[in-house]
Design brief:
By secondary structure, the protein is mostly helical. The chain is built from 20 helices and two strands. The chain has a two-stranded antiparallel sheet. Helix 9 runs antiparallel to helix 10. The longest helix is centred in the N-terminal third of the chain and has 22 residues.
Length: about 400
């Protein structure tokens, strides 16, 4: 310490190592200080080391980021001061900000927001800028460095999502006027879609801002993901025609079988609930099963489609459709280990089994239990006669 102090006082411009090694020396004395007063005196010295490094060797943005980390470590009760230092560091460093500084900046912003010193829009803006930087660093990093950067990106996103500021209203208030002023800004549109996709309610995808941004992204960079986002938005708006169009495009562009299966299933729900096109709903559900044979929800959808179709002219024919309906729910159970699907299927089996024709009704039509029959209408499938005793 005496030799270092002499250099620090008498030849401050001799070498940057005075400051690089000086922080390590001072931190050792801080950690081993005998009392709080001595510790605080060393913390003051540490802050001076950072400040003098900036005075004599520049690199203000870089050094401020590291100074902010030390402030949090040794003066954690003054979050506002640390936040101000991180904000200035980020302003100066931009996309060169060190990854750990990015996380601390986001962390302090969330705390300051909790103390009502920042608005929701402020936090959204900070997250937007910080996430852009960390994602760019991930894209440009060597493979060996990517895991640490990706972990940091995940932590930053978690901080934002749990901050209480990540709601649709704040995002729309911040980016709505900006996008209206520059409606062809593709990068902004991507950012808007990414932020609103994190929303936990339909309000996000139902907004005009989301739809306009999503359409711009898709128009410029067609992908299954962007088409799917638009389809879901139109679905939630009850715009069946546009939803159908974009679901078909998303399915055509998607290469992952499981993702494609889920898109087929959602398209089936659209046909079933919004467009009331039951044959198309069955075809879409079968498309889901074709891509993922274990898609139990698709079988349940087919059963519900048959139940809603109103097939049959006589009372007996209408009851007969329930055989096929239950068949689908039994298949749903047999292909999945999803407990929610199994529970749903069991309830539906109980409900529709109670609607089977009686043994007497079957007898008077010269039929017998266990016999194979074909259900006509548009369904045109075979099933087995069962009776409701």
């Amino acid at each position: 310490m005496p030799a270092w102090r002499w250099c620090f006082v008498n030849c401050p411009e001799a070498t940057k190592n005075i400051y690089i090694h000086g922080t390590k020396i001072i931190e050792l004395f801080i950690d081993n200080a005998a009392d709080d007063a001595t510790k605080e005196a060393y913390v003051d010295t540490l802050m001076m080391v950072y400040d003098n490094r900036i005075t004599y060797f520049g690199q203000e943005g870089l050094v401020l980021g590291r100074k902010g980390v030390s402030m949090l470590k040794y003066r954690s009760n003054d979050i506002q001061a640390a936040y101000d230092v991180f904000a200035r560091s980020f302003e100066l460093q931009g996309d060169k900000t060190e990854y750990f500084v990015l996380q601390y900046y986001m962390n302090t912003a969330v705390v300051i927001f909790g103390n009502e010193k920042l608005t929701k829009e402020d936090v959204v803006e900070i997250y937007s800028r910080v996430s852009d930087v960390i994602n760019a660093q991930i894209n440009n990093a060597a493979d060996s460095k990517k895991p640490k950067l990706e972990q940091t990106a995940a932590e930053i996103e978690k901080l934002f999502v749990n901050s209480g500021a990540a709601d649709c209203e704040a995002i729309i208030n911040l980016f709505g006027p900006k996008f209206e002023a520059d409606p062809e800004n593709l990068e902004m549109a991507k950012k808007i879609v990414g932020l609103l996709d994190r929303g936990k309610s339909d309000e996000c995808q139902l907004s005009d801002l989301y739809m306009n941004a999503a359409v711009l992204v898709y128009t410029n960079e067609k992908s299954s993901t962007s088409a799917h986002s638009i389809a879901q938005g139109y679905f939630k708006r009850d715009d069946g025609a546009n939803a159908e169009k974009y679901y078909k495009e998303a399915i055509e562009l998607e290469e992952d079988a499981l993702k494609k299966a889920d898109m087929y299933y959602e398209l089936g729900l659209l046909y079933y609930g919004t467009l009331r096109n039951y044959p198309a709903a069955r075809n879409a559900a079968r498309g889901a099963i074709g891509e993922n044979p274990n898609h139990g929800k698709a079988y349940i959808l087919i059963g519900k489609v048959y139940a809603a179709s109103g097939c049959g002219e006589t009372a007996f024919e209408k009851k007969s459709v329930n055989w096929l309906i239950v068949d689908q729910f039994i298949k749903a159970k047999s292909v999945t280990d999803d407990e929610d699907v199994i529970q749903d299927a069991n309830q539906l089996i109980g409900r529709y089994s109670s609607k089977f024709p009686t043994l007497e009704e079957v007898f008077w039509l010269n039929l017998s239990e266990g016999q194979t029959v074909t259900i006509g209408c548009w369904i045109n499938e075979t099933t087995t006669i069962r009776c409701n005793q």
